[in-house]
Amino acid sequence: MRITEATFTPLRLTLARPLKTAKGTYTTREGFIVRLTDEDGHVGQGEAMPLPEFGTEPLATTHQVLRDWLGALKGQSLDDSIEGIEATLAPSPGDASRSLGAKIRPLEPEEHVPAAQHGLELALLDLLAQRKGVPLCWLLAEEARPEVLVNALLSAEAPEELAQEAKDAVAEGFQTLKLKVAGRTLDADEARVRAVRAAVGPGVRLRLDANGGWSEPEANRALDRLGWYELELVEQPTPAEDLQALWRVQRRAPCIIAADETLASPAAVRALLTMDLGGGPVVGAVVLKPMVLGGLLPSMVVALRAARLGMHAYVTSSLDGVVARAGAAHLASALPSGELASGLAVGRLFADEPRDHPYKPERGLLRLHDVPGLGLTPELTGVP
Ligand SMILES: O=C(O)CCC(=O)c1ccccc1C(=O)O
Ligand SMILES: [Mg+2]
């Protein structure tokens, strides 16, 4: 494919109400939409929405890197293949397959710019899938599922409000609910978890996300008390860097422990996928955030290695816009297992979510349509 136009446009998202996590409160998100045009007039779209507290580069770096890469890419050709895309994005020299790609980046393998990489990779994948006339997920797996289970992320603070939000989500058809915990007293968290479980009854899957906000003893105490409320899993109970603590917490936990913030560092991802502390994998599941892992292809690699080690994997956005969530949905549909719901139902939390687009969950499911690429026109993204 020959890239005739390569542009990027700012994208700013506002949450309808602040989302409190153990590590801070989100009110707005800022990033860029990437658009690539090929010689046949197809337009591929990607999104770069950095989250520096999750290990991505800061927004100013995303801006600078996209400007350089897209400036270099314009007018160049790359092979119509996944290998062509990988070679274009590869930081390391000396790879024979590099000739398949376009030359866009100075060869500095230590440079860690996952959000910019995600934005460009997604635009190239969208373009490639459109050129081949297939949904993007078909490029990632032969047996991509047409539907992806998604969880509702509850954002209220007070137990009574949370209970109502949980009931509404279940009435809408969600069968998995997620609740932020930690950064409050355990009594307060127990009241919130109890209110949700009481509101929805048994059977509905309930997952918690501590965002690394508990020490190991606090996590054990919390799981001893909260395990009673029938938990599906708990994301990142303890700090990101301490894999041994995660391993120990998983060993005595009443549910799956999922590593999330841990995957923000490439060194920790390697350790998680290679370390043998005995008795199976470090944790029961990994959370794949494509924006943090540098794209759908690196995320797929982590998922396949995790599956081989006996770990579940599921996908979440990092509170991204429609384009990144669309890419993440295609990744989720291509994972080895679709058992655990993906965190891709956050559109309802944004004040400025585009009104109509094909990635709105219905009855707790995202349906992927048989259309080329992501199937998102520039108008549908809400960005001119
Ligand atoms: O999983 C979801 O439903 C939404 C994703 C989410 O919670 C999140 C969003 C932004 C940053 C971090 C996280 C997280 O999972 O920890
Ligand atoms: Mg999390």
TrEMBL record:
Catalytic residue list: 180 (proton donor), 289 (proton acceptor)
Gene Ontology molecular function terms on file: magnesium ion binding; O-succinylbenzoate synthase activity
Chain residues that bind Mg(2+): 209, 235, 260
Stretches assigned to coiled coil: none
InterPro entries (UniProt xref): Enolase-like_C_sf, Enolase-like_N, Enolase_C-like, Mandel_Rmase/mucon_lact_enz_CS, Mandelate_racemase_C, OSB_synthase_MenC1, OSBS_N
Any single biological process term in GO: amino acid catabolic process
Stretches assigned to the Mandelate racemase/muconate lactonizing enzyme C-terminal domain: 159-256
Cofactor(s) of this protein: a divalent metal cation
UniProt keywords, alphabetically: Lyase, Magnesium, Menaquinone biosynthesis, Metal-binding
EC number assigned by the record: 4.2.1.113
Any Pfam family: MR_MLE_C
Pathway noted in the entry: Quinol/quinone metabolism; 1,4-dihydroxy-2-naphthoate biosynthesis; 1,4-dihydroxy-2-naphthoate from chorismate: step 4/7; Quinol/quinone metabolism; menaquinone biosynthesis
Catalytic activity: (1R,6R)-6-hydroxy-2-succinyl-cyclohexa-2,4-diene-1-carboxylate = 2-succinylbenzoate + H2O
Functional description taken from the UniProt entry: Converts 2-succinyl-6-hydroxy-2,4-cyclohexadiene-1-carboxylate (SHCHC) to 2-succinylbenzoate (OSB).
Family classification: Belongs to the mandelate racemase/muconate lactonizing enzyme family. MenC type 1 subfamily.
NCBIfam families: menC_gam_Gplu (TIGR01927)
Name of the protein in its database record: o-succinylbenzoate synthase
Species name: Corallococcus sicarius
Record lineage: Bacteria, Pseudomonadati, Myxococcota, Myxococcia, Myxococcales
Record gene name: menC
